[in-house]
Design goal:
With 200 residues, the protein is an alpha/beta fold. It folds into two domains: 6-77; 100-192, 2-Layer Sandwich (Nucleotidyltransferase, domain 5), CATH 3.30.420.10. The chain is 36% helix and 26% strand. It has six helices and eight strands; from the N terminus they run E-E-H-H-E-H-H-E-E-E-H-E-H-E. It has helices at 21-38, 44-54, 60-70, 72-77, 145-160, 177-185, and strands spanning 6-9, 12-16, 55-56, 100-113, 118-128, 134-140, 165-168, 189-192. The protein has a five-stranded mixed sheet, with helices on one face. The protein has a three-stranded mixed sheet with strand order 1-2-3. Strand 1 (6-9) and strand 2 form a beta hairpin. Helix 5 (145-160) packs parallel to helix 6 (177-185).
Amino acid sequence: MHGILFYTCNEQVRICVPNTPDCNSIIKVTLLKKIHISLGHAGFTKTLHELMNNFYWPKMARDTWEYCKTCAVYQQAKNSTQKSYGLLHPLPIPSKPFTHLTMDFLALPAIIYHATKIHYSHMWTIVCRLTKYTLVLPLPDGYTADTLVSLFMTHIYPHLRYPLDIITDNDMLFHSTVWSGFCKLNSISVRKLYICTGII
C-alpha cells in the first residue's frame, strides 16, 4: 500500500522494515534509538515490546538486544546483577621491619646482558611492608621456582633474613612444590591475594 510493506500476524498489522543495507544502517537504527529514548532508556524487553506494536523485521529481538547493549545511559542505569562486594579488610601493619614482605613479577622488554648473553624477561620485586625497602631482581627467560629459591638465598637472605610472612599474587610458581617446601622448611607463612593487578 503506497509503497509500504505490511506484516500481519494474529490480526495485528505492522509496518514491515525490509532487510536491505539502507534499512539496516539507517531506518532500523533510527527506530531503535527513538523508541528506546522515548521509553527513558528502558531495557531490552520494553523496547522490543514497543517496537513490535508497530513494526516488524527479521531478527528484531537480536537487533534490539545489541542496541541496548551499546546504550551507555541504559548500561549505567540498569540494576546490577552482580553480587555486592564485601568489606575491605586492610592488612595489619607490621611491628618490625623485614618480617612481612610482598612479592610480585613485572614483565620487561627483551633485555640481553652482553657479558653473559643471558636474556632477561621479568623483574622480581620484593618489598618490606613496613619500611617499603625494595629489592628488584632480574629474572632470566624460563625462570622456575628453583631460580627463585636460589636468588632468595643469594640476594634476599643476606639483607632481610627469613621473613615471618610473604604475600604474593596467584602466580603458579608461588603454588609450586619447590617454593612451598622452601617456605615451610624456613617457617615462612605464605598468603595469596587473588587480584588482577600487581600487589606491590
